[in-house]
Amino acid sequence: xxxxxxxxxxxxxxxxxxxxxxxxxxxxxxxxxxxxxxxxxxxxxxxxxxxxxxxxxxxxxxxxxxxxxxxxxxxxxxxxxxxxxxxxxxxxxxxxxxxxxxxxxxxxxxxxxxxxxxxxxxxxxxxxxxxxxxxxxxxxxxxxxxxxxxxxxxxxxxxxxxxxxxxxxxxxxxxxxxxxxxxxxxxxxxxxxxxxxxxxxxxxxxxxxxxxxxxxxxxxxxxxxxxxxxxxxxxxxxxxxxxxxxxxxxxxxxxxxxxxxxxxxxxxxxxxxxxxxxx
Length: 279
Known about the structure:
Helix content is 44%, strand content 19%. It is of the alpha/beta class and 279 residues long. The protein starts with 16 loop residues before the first helix and ends with a helix. It comes from Rubrivivax gelatinosus.
């Protein structure tokens, strides 16, 4: 349990010209068309996998009104993004170390004022992300599910979009809807797909192909330009995941040899290569 006060290990702003010259973080939005696909589980464990490879990582809970990253990580913050927005604390005071060696910026849950994106919240969220980006190698935005204005604005601030889906028909339908909206309203022409709860090897590739075929048929003709979906990876169905979630622990911390853990590490390696290739 933490008292909400970040220790000295939380990254501070660059102190010299050499560090100041480092490129800002690659910002990745982890989103989904529907809830219950394991988006927050992926975001947290992916951050741990990136940290294990020496990356400075921040996970920002961008599900402003229905936050649950604190539950997944078994954290009890006294200060949240809400307190930063309202001026009750500084950004540094709200940054917390998480199990797994990364940093988190948690949001409050049940905040009805964040159910819609107001100009004030828009400006505050942009300010926070702009301020933290130079301190890290990766900033992961754990967004809400669906296509609300809050979700879409958070995604608009990211360099990359990772759409998490499961092989279930309802998940695929909602993933397609999300991809369509991002392509038509934000001009996204490249998005990454991460298939969670894959039931057999190669199912992620099949899901990506199915989504790409539907996008090519129904979205691309109206845009006049291709929309490409890349498979970032697949995470298999693994009983160890449910056990870790119930215990409110990171799977990579408690069962690093589990099939799902190995898959998440592979995803992190691909994400690093992708980010480094765009610096």
